[in-house]
């Protein structure tokens, strides 16, 4: 008689809030080649505007993934898209101590993934990364709430806050110190270790959920050898 050596599963075949083990079906839309713009930036703007008008919760939220070399270890985190221009997708972060900064120092490549549940759509972006100038970063930084500007100075992002040294209180103390430093100063300068990063897409994929997991997927690929345009192809789901 064979022994069952399987370990008990804490989660198995979840299906949202339903009790059924069968995944929810996607039925809200389709995507055809003739519906796509020749330019992925224009197409993203169209979809993003639709997400905003459809009350998608925080459509600017994206999963940013980076990988360090030579280990190849991957890390991911959720960030906010803050800008889209004719070069790429811009997010902001700490460039001094964060995990993503360390990854990008050895491997200046990143991916972004957007998921808009209300529309059953996702978008994937892949490409090299460049850092924005301090002048560009200052423009956005000055728009942030004062507390967020203070926080950027105070937080040594991703570094440990040992409980034996005070834990959260260490961070709160740094915040108070920065508040004191900039008391009465309205135009707080952007920290030299903080700023924007632009993902320069080489690949952008648009995904529309369909029934039976037979999704519509179209991939834009940068034509590096041609006229600098984009090739579009449908992918198997």
Q: Mind explaining what this structure looks like?
A:
The chain is an alpha+beta fold and 237 residues long. The protein contains five helices and ten strands. It has helices spanning 40-53, 99-106, 134-141, 146-154, 168-181, and strands spanning 61-67, 74-80, 83-84, 89-94, 109-116, 121-131, 194-199, 203-208, 216-222, 230-235. Strands 1, 2, 3, 4, 5, 6, 7, 8, 9 and 10 form a ten-stranded antiparallel β-sheet that branches. β8 (203-208) and β9 form a beta hairpin. α4 packs across α5 (168-181). The protein starts with 39 loop residues before the first helix and ends with a strand. The model has no long low-confidence stretch (mean pLDDT 94).
| Helix-strand string | HEEEEHEEHHHEEEE
Radius of gyration: 22 Å
Distance between the termini: 40 Å
Number of helices: 5
Strand tally is 10
Low-confidence stretches: none
Keywords:
single chain, 237 residues, alpha+beta, 22% helix
